[in-house]
Write a structure and sequence with these properties.
This protein is mainly beta and 275 residues long. The protein has helices spanning 2-24, 247-250; strands spanning 33-37, 49-51, 64-66, 73-76, 79-86, 96-98, 100-103, 111-118, 127-135, 149-154, 162-168, 180-181, 185-186, 195-201, 205-210, 216-221, 237-245, 261-272. The strands form two sheets. Strands 1, 3, 4, 5, 6, 8, 14, 15, 16 and 18 form a ten-stranded mixed β-sheet that branches. Strand 10 and strand 11 (162-168) form a beta hairpin. The longest helix has 23 residues, at 2-24.
């Protein structure tokens, strides 16, 4: 009887240990994963992400000053949080702080990219969160838009319940009104829930989707006579995650009731596409 009780007690401890180990282990990620940041823990990875700084207007007359302070950039409860704050009188450059980070790694054709994120709660005009990519050649001196830009998701709070996906190149960009994109994509849950924004990136095309790979909202095909001016998307690009305030697209009439505004990113994942 004592042996049976001891055996039963040992089995109980073994099962309890397995349960504890299972609950504390990292979640299993899908096959084919090349790279990911799940934003677990309490700090953002300084080897994977590079913060950018300043209140230069960022080419779009934006109001925010980008910092890497914990008030603007943090990780908790399994998400990256980019928080925009009002620190001045409002309606002017430097009156708000926020964060913008770029990935150290680059990626290119032959990948499937997914970013699960939640837009800040809707309280009025002036917020401009974005998930996007720039051609790595810009780090080596190639100017924008020749380097290429892929806007996986842009949202402006002056247009609630919708988002935009766009590509920019030397041949097609917003400075001359020739950018190519999805236009307004309705997504009524965008301010309330997490949604997954992604692209399927092949040599011959880029497909943009939301929440499911089959839910394609926009496709751009490589031109027949392609070159770096009209198709810089054969080259590697890096990620940018940021929350801008005001600006030419975000809108200059900023509702200061927005702040603090939090843009949450659950994960960034890059998969290798099968041939």
């Amino acid at each position: 009887m004592r042996i049976l009780l001891l055996a039963s007690f040992s089995l109980f401890l073994s099962l309890l240990s397995c349960k504890e180990n299972s609950s504390n282990s990292e979640p299993e990620l899908p096959e084919g994963l090349l790279w990911a940041d799940e934003f677990n823990g309490t700090e953002w990875d300084r080897e994977e992400w590079i913060p950018e700084f300043g209140a230069s207007g960022w080419g779009n007359q934006e109001y925010q000053n980008y910092t890497a302070s914990k008030e603007n950039l943090s990780v908790s409860d399994g998400t990256l949080k980019i928080t925009a704050l009002k620190v001045g009188d409002g309606q002017g450059r430097g009156d708000y702080t926020s964060a913008r980070i770029t990935s150290a790694k680059t990626f290119g054709p032959g990948t499937l990219i997914e970013v699960r994120a939640k837009i800040p709660d809707y309280k009025g005009n002036g917020l401009w969160p974005a998930i996007w990519m720039l051609g790595d050649s810009i780090r080596k001196g190639t100017p924008w838009p020749t380097c290429g830009e892929i806007d996986i998701m842009e949202y402006v709070s002056r247009s609630p319940d919708v988002f935009f996906s766009t590509i920019h190149s030397a041949a097609n960009n917003h400075t001359n009104g020739t950018q190519i994109g999805s236009g307004n994509v309705p997504l009524p849950s965008i301010e309330e829930d997490f949604n997954t924004f992604g692209i399927e990136w092949q040599e011959e095309y880029i497909k943009f989707f939301v929440n499911d790979r089959s839910n394609v909202i926009f496709r751009i095909n490589r031109p027949q006579d392609y070159n770096l001016n009209n198709w810089p998307f054969s080259e590697p690009h890096f990620f940018i995650l940021n929350l801008a305030v005001g600006g030419t697209f975000g809108g200059f009439d900023v509702n200061d009731d927005n702040f603090p505004a939090v843009f949450e990113i659950d994960y960034v994942r890059v998969y290798e596409l099968e041939d």
